[in-house]
Amino acid sequence: MPKTILEVSLISIPDNLLDVIYTACRTCYSPEGAVDIYENLTDDTEKKLNLIRKVISSGHYSTIEHIQVTFAINNISRAATHQLVRHRHMSFSQKSQRYVKEKGEFDFIVPSAIEAKRDLYDKFLIHMRETANLYQEFIENGIKGEDARAILPNATASSMVVSLNLRELIHLANLRLCTRAQLEIRLAVKRMCALVEEREPWLKEHLVPKCERLGYCDEEKSCGRKKKKNG
Ligand SMILES: Cc1cc2nc3c(=O)[nH]c(=O)nc-3n(C[C@H](O)[C@H](O)[C@H](O)COP(=O)(O)OP(=O)(O)OC[C@H]3O[C@@H](n4cnc5c(N)ncnc54)[C@H](O)[C@@H]3O)c2cc1C
After folding, report:
1. How many domains does the chain have?
2. What is the distance in A from the centroid of ligand 1 to the CA of 87?
3. Is residue 85 situated within a structural domain?
């Protein structure tokens, strides 16, 4: 069945995120020990944010690696999850196509560009139905899910739990919020960032496409958001 709504939940983020990063930052520059710094933390949020902003902008990223966030994601294509799993500092648990057999008409994601063209969309649906029938025939004839999945398309809907630290989330945003990234992964990462920003609004300035961080576009062609470096 076509699945249209990407679902993303933020299932874990530390409540004391600022305290953790601030302690890490101050530990690097203070004669006091980390324990004393943590046990005598200031209540002044602006003071914490000022130091954290300075440290992040100077590229001292180890201080934000202590923060781990976890998301649950539903209704995302295998094409998009394949792109996500290329990120090597993230942890994944994904619905198995070996242990979970697709039943009847399996769920799939329709790219909006195809959905917008009625005749191509109809052909897409026919292809999915024929694939589901063939998959079912394989299963009924004793082919294991791990082999029958060979015919499932990149559009097959998947589900995963994803964990990553804050440094990697910023990197992910820099790469995947860029308009050069494919629309589906862009929307998934945008949703992930929005959920984190709801909890920690100060992160909005960091969860941006890379051109915002660089001040220019380093892609072959600029979308116009920022000019090319020498353009
Ligand atoms: C628009 C776009 C188009 C793409 N097109 C293609 C494509 O056509 N074909 C393709 O194969 N991939 C493609 N990719 C995937 C891309 O090549 C990366 O594999 C993916 O974006 C992960 O990025 P990363 O390696 O920077 O990040 P991560 O794996 O998340 O790593 C983060 C950072 O850690 C460091 N790091 C991690 N591992 C190593 C290592 N082994 N050695 C040194 N430093 C390391 C690097 O600084 C890296 O930037 C594309 C990505 C984007 C955003």
Report:
1. 2
2. 6
3. no
pLDDT > 90 in the chain, percent:
90
Mean pLDDT of the 186-200 span: 98
Instruction: Report how far residue 74's alpha carbon sits from residue 46's, in angstroms, rounded to the nearest whole number.
Output: 36
Could you tell me the sign of the dihedral formed by the alpha carbons of 24, 201, 71, 57, in that order?
negative
Is 182's C-beta closer than 6 angstroms to any atom of ligand 1? no
For residue 196, give the amino acid letter: V
Residue 18 lies inside a defined structural domain of this protein? yes
- Same domain, yes or no: 23 and 43: yes
pTM: 0.95
pLDDT at 158 over 80: yes
Is 142 a member of any domain?
Answer: yes
User: Using a 6 Å cutoff on CB, does residue 144 contact ligand 1?
Assistant: no
Output the pLDDT for position 231: 66
- Assign residue 197 a region (left: φ > 0; alpha: ψ between -120 and 50; beta: otherwise): alpha
- For residue 164, what are the contacts with CB-CB under 8 A and spacing of at least 6? 68, 69, 87, 89, 90, 91, 172
pLDDT tens sequence across 35-90: 999 999 999 999 999 999 999 989 999 999 999 999 999 999 999 999 999 999 99
Q: Look at residue 209 in the predicted model and tell me its pLDDT.
A: 97
The predicted pLDDT at position 230 comes to 74
| 61, 86, 218, 219, best to mutate for ligand 1 pocket (most atoms within 8 Å of CB) | 86
* 223 within domain boundaries: no
Local structure of 197: helix, strand or coil: helix
Same domain for 137 and 167? no
What residues make up the domain containing 49? 7-72+161-214
Same-domain check for residues 63 and 170: yes
